[in-house]
Design goal:
Two copies of one chain form a homodimer.
Chain A lengths: L1 E3 L8 H6 L10 H18 L4 E6 L2 H10 L7 E6 L2 H12 L3 E6 L8 H10 L5 E5 L1 E2 L4 E2 L2 H10 L3 E5 L18 E5 L10 E6 L1 H9 L9 H8 L10 H17 L1 H21 L15 E5 L6 H12 L1 E5 L8 E5 L6 H17 L9
Parallel strand pairs in A: 1-12, 3-4, 3-5, 5-8, 8-9
Antiparallel strand pairs in A: 2-10, 6-7, 9-10, 11-13, 12-13
Helix pairs in contact in A: 2-9, 3-4, 5-6, 11-12
Chain lengths: 365, 365
Amino acid sequence: MQLRVPGPTPCPDDVLQSMTRQMVDHRGAEFMDLAQRVTRKLKGIFQTQGDILTLTASGTGGLEAAVVNTLSPGDKVLSVSCGVFGDRFATVAEKYGAEVVRLRFEWGKAADPDQVHRMLQSHMDIKAVLVTHNETSTGVTNDLAPICRMVKEFDKLLLVDAVSSLGAIDLPTDEWSCDVVISASQKGWMAPPGLAMVSVSQRAWEAERSATMPRFYFDLNKAKAFLDKGQTPWTPAVPLFYALDVALDGMNVEGLPNIFARHSRIASMTREGVKRFGLSLFADEDYASNVVTAVKTPEGMNVKELRKLLKEEHGIVLAGGQQKLSGHIFRIAHLGLVNEADMEQVLTGLSLALPKLGFSPDKTL
Amino acid sequence: MQLRVPGPTPCPDDVLQSMTRQMVDHRGAEFMDLAQRVTRKLKGIFQTQGDILTLTASGTGGLEAAVVNTLSPGDKVLSVSCGVFGDRFATVAEKYGAEVVRLRFEWGKAADPDQVHRMLQSHMDIKAVLVTHNETSTGVTNDLAPICRMVKEFDKLLLVDAVSSLGAIDLPTDEWSCDVVISASQKGWMAPPGLAMVSVSQRAWEAERSATMPRFYFDLNKAKAFLDKGQTPWTPAVPLFYALDVALDGMNVEGLPNIFARHSRIASMTREGVKRFGLSLFADEDYASNVVTAVKTPEGMNVKELRKLLKEEHGIVLAGGQQKLSGHIFRIAHLGLVNEADMEQVLTGLSLALPKLGFSPDKTL
């Protein structure tokens, strides 16, 4: 099976096998070693000296933790969004009472740092900026560095949704002064879903001290106090810690620069392959994501049928479009455990499936 | 290893092995079947026709979900607590702005239904009652049936923490008119931690419609809407669903009455064994829990040393006391995957370890 949706991504065998290990006491020495070892390795991939808390939750739980631990009801925040996940981050903040100024970019385009600058200039009372690094719903990776610089120039708190980018696309947390960065185990990490990893800068801890949004399960201060003794406040998903531990070893063997280069290479290969078929990319190619490629549905084709055919005849699982993009795009993920041979298989499958649904690949194929 | 802490509990081999299965698309047909099958089986163990939502979170996340989906800030709630977990449930409600009337019982004693009755009579404006079925911190199981009858007599919403009881101690959700019942996968279910299961009655859904506490990750209405199409709103911990699915099959093979009887039998055996040593039980024996036995630390003994010795020399992992009970008790869990031979081993280990720390087992041994 070629599982090519943007999470859950496939796990290596040793990661899956690690979960057959029996449970341990989460207040005992084995878990202490495990939690501290995983945290140390996470810091390498996050490129941070700050704290990292690992929560038993999916990425959305991590977004909620970022918001409720740093903000108070009534705080004005700027949401920089170019898709479903940017909108979700903003909605979390709104649900907890923040006043959200939504800076929306056309889906398929990246956020424009100049517009972010103008918003920060015209809303001096903004406390924090929420931004998505990689927008999975449209296949766009925002140019995060200049946005970070700008947010810091205006001395604002910077919360970054890096759920689908971290460990696959370069994001030097400390160098770019990101205050809270959120990722999730089922994306670039090659581990199963169920853990959200959240980095917290000193500045974010300062914000935490005065933040009044209600929180209990996602209380990061409590998570930090327990991590200091190698524990979590609530019972952790032990097998997922086993899995992440092994997955991180795999990442360290490959090395971050090689991981980034592999994702870049396979993304190019995917885009070129798709274009050779005469299909069109949905995302602005200057900001096309290295972890997921969104492809416009050919005129008149039913995406559900295409996905069904690919799955049943070729064992290839692709994602459809979300919300208003449903039916209009399909998405090929190349995130985490993926190599050139995998993507060859996907492209071959597509080249065979498309004509069966009435689309003739371009003659140049 | 005899892992005898009240969660994580040991998992059967087939449950552990199930997690080596590769990830699947959580928006696809396989996960749909899995989610619906697991939900169907959960309803049997919960003894409910109502809804059950399975959240990627530990039990505490389930407690939070129960509170924030049914209450509004300012709502008056009655907390019936006889230990750490009862207090925690109350604190969750307080953090989100409820006005909590705390009815506290001495640790080691059970909640007195008459006192619950008096509180309900003197606070007619109470909207909901929070009660813990099995208080793991003290080894007490509350007599839930009369409390439920009383809460319903006063027509209040009834939220039950059954994290450590469900699937081990009888709790007929519908028959006892429980509105929200919370459990967690690492307890009686013989599955790993990371999933919270929450049942929701029609009455709880009515409360949900007007409840204004903020919620996003734990939004049960959204969870229900997605479950109706065999999905979860956010990426679920897929391997834990695999595990719970297999664990539920094991429970159904044994059958609920047999499971309850086994827990009852092994609990009696544990209590008798401990008393034969001349040790004292911490909990009121009339309400002693069938899933965990709290034992008073013999005068002058260091619990940490006892636990260390048991672990290192006998491979037995017991729990200490929590909060003000730290040092004063140790706890032997007999929850989930446990049989007489396991408990024989634990008792034998204790009989060998205790004298080494200066305690002479009673002559009657």
